[in-house]
Design a protein that fits this description.
Layout (H helix, E strand, L loop, with lengths): L1 H23 L2 H10 L5 H9 L4 H13 L7 H9 L4 H13 L6 H9 L4 H9 L2 E4 L3 E4 L4 E13 L10 H17 L4 H6 L2 H8 L9 E16 H63 L4 H21 L12
Antiparallel strand pairs: 1-3, 2-3, 3-4
Helix pairs in contact: 2-4, 4-6, 6-7, 6-8, 9-11
Length: 330
């Protein structure tokens, strides 16, 4: 029994050693590389494991590049790109696609695009098969005050040389929207835009909106134009309402000033009446002093009274009466 246990332990140990050996020395992967014509040694595959580089990914990429005729790629370059955080398989796919499509793309450019966070394989595909981007509705107002809502379709192709540091789709959409607004805003009336929507495309394309971006604009097509609100009429109504409010405010200001002036005049009149009453109160005192001093006699006093009575009678006769006049027959 003990010898059987020992034999089983030896067999298990051998199996574990074989598993560890084939893990660190991928013999089958080396055979696959040799059969494909890729020159790579078992030692290099073992050292990849030590450097924590997946031998399968590097070997598969080298086999693909070799079969596609890209024999300039080396194992060291692929390993360095992987250790830098890049996607080796994506870069090799992009290089193979660019080579088949006669697109100039070097390994350094492909790795730079990949490390910049862009999908280099998708960029190569977009260079071969342009992408159509639908813009959101763009609202603009013509010179006659009519609002137009336009939608455009922008056909773009990836610009490989501008992928590193170039602006993305959001910038393209923003610039196209700006160009549409400028084109519609410079039109004399909205009917001209509706009759010739291609004038918007031509004007926008002449502005070179793809400068500094990762794309090349191939065409801009106006998909739809709808008529919106009459912004000019709304603005005129708002202006008229504002003018009305200003006029009302000025009228209220003048009325307040008139009321204040009236109150001031009333106050002055009351002050004048008070002074007259005060002066009239001094008249009896002055007359008494005149009697005592002999400057005024009784006949003078009666003459003054007669004058006052005559003046009062004249004032009464001069005042209009509201009572209806009776016929002379009665």
């Amino acid at each position: 029994m003990e010898s059987m246990y020992v034999s089983l332990g030896i067999i298990a140990g051998v199996i574990v050693l074989l598993i560890i050996f084939f893990h660190y020395v991928p013999f089958l992967l080396w055979i696959s590389a040799k059969v494909s014509g890729v020159n790579i040694s078992l030692l290099q595959l073992f050292l990849m494991r030590i450097r924590k580089v997946p031998p399968g990914a590097i070997t598969s990429a080298m086999i693909e590049a070799h079969k596609a005729g890209l024999k300039s790629l080396t194992r060291d370059e692929l390993e360095a790109h992987y250790l830098a955080g890049g996607h080796v398989e994506r870069v090799v796919h992009a290089l193979v696609s660019a080579s088949k499509a006669n697109i100039e793309l070097s390994f350094q450019m492909a790795t730079a695009i990949d490390l910049a966070g862009r999908d280099v394989f998708e960029a190569v595909q977009m260079s071969v098969n342009p992408k159509v981007i639908d813009t959101p509705p763009v609202t603009a107002v013509a010179k006659d005050g009519i609002q137009l809502i336009a939608k455009a379709r922008v056909t773009v192709r990836a610009n490989i040389k501008q992928l590193v540091g170039g602006a993305g789709e959001e910038t393209i959409l923003a610039r196209v929207g700006e160009g549409i607004v400028s084109s519609i805003g410079s039109s004399e009336n909205h009917k001209t835009v509706l009759e010739n929507p291609d004038s918007i495309s031509k004007l926008v394309l002449r502005k070179g909106l793809d400068a500094g971006t990762a794309f090349e604009i191939l065409s801009i097509d106006i998909a739809d134009i709808d008529i919106g609100k009459n912004i000019g009429a709304y603005l005129q109504m708002d202006q008229a309402q504002a003018d009305k409010n200003i006029a009302q405010a000025k009228a209220e200001e003048r009325r307040a000033m008139a009321v204040a002036l009236e109150q001031e005049m009333k106050a002055k009149a009351q002050e004048a009446r008070a002074k007259v009453i005060e002066a009239e109160a001094e008249v009896p005192k002055a007359m008494a002093d005149a009697f005592r001093s002999g400057n005024m006699g009784v006949m003078d006093y009666y003459k003054m009274k007669n004058i006052e009575a005559d003046t009062s009678m004249r004032e009464t006769i001069a005042k209009p009466t509201n009572r209806p006049s009776k016929p002379l027959n009665d």
